[in-house]
Structure to design on (163 residues):
């Protein structure tokens, strides 16, 4: 077998449910070629995603010298769900959750700031509108209004958004 460079970094990206042990069967095809035990990686993922209990979340596993480091890469939906401050839910029992809470416009702006590096919008207000669109699909309101209404207000420059 070819010699392995100990400083070489390999990345694995996958979507997991926070705070739960990812099944070794799902991890095996990704971990085995890198010489990692899938079970251990699953446990590391569980430890890293504890604060995202019961929410599906994107993660990055960096493998260097057969050590794995897990980073959580939250996208808009998990951040909005977190801003709603809902308690953890049992995925086995509670299905089709409607997130009918209410978040503040400040929360939307905070989330947009976190997502700015991976947003495709030209301006920051566009990133805010992306987050508002996620609020629409989750079914929550922003400042007690429909998120679509707020997107309209941003378009008409009635709501000022500064980075």
């Amino acid at each position: 077998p070819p010699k392995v460079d100990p400083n070489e970094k390999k990345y694995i990206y996958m979507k997991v449910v926070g705070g739960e042990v990812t099944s070794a069967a799902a991890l095996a095809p990704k971990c085995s070629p890198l010489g990692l035990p899938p079970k251990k990686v699953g446990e590391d993922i569980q430890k890293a995603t504890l604060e995202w209990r019961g929410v599906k979340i994107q993660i990055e596993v960096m493998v260097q010298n057969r050590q794995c480091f897990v980073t959580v890469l939250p996208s808009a939906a998990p951040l909005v769900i977190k801003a709603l401050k809902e308690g953890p839910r049992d995925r086995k029992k509670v299905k089709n959750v409607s997130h009918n809470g209410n978040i503040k416009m400040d929360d939307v702006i905070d989330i947009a700031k976190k997502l700015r590096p991976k947003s495709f919008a030209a301006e920051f207000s566009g990133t805010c509108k992306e987050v508002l669109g996620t609020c629409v699909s989750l079914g929550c309101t922003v400042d007690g209004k429909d998120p679509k209404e707020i997107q309209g207000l941003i378009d008409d420059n009635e709501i000022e958004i500064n980075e």
Notes: The longest helix spans residues 124-138. Strands lie at 9-17, 56-64, 67-73, 102-103, 141-142.
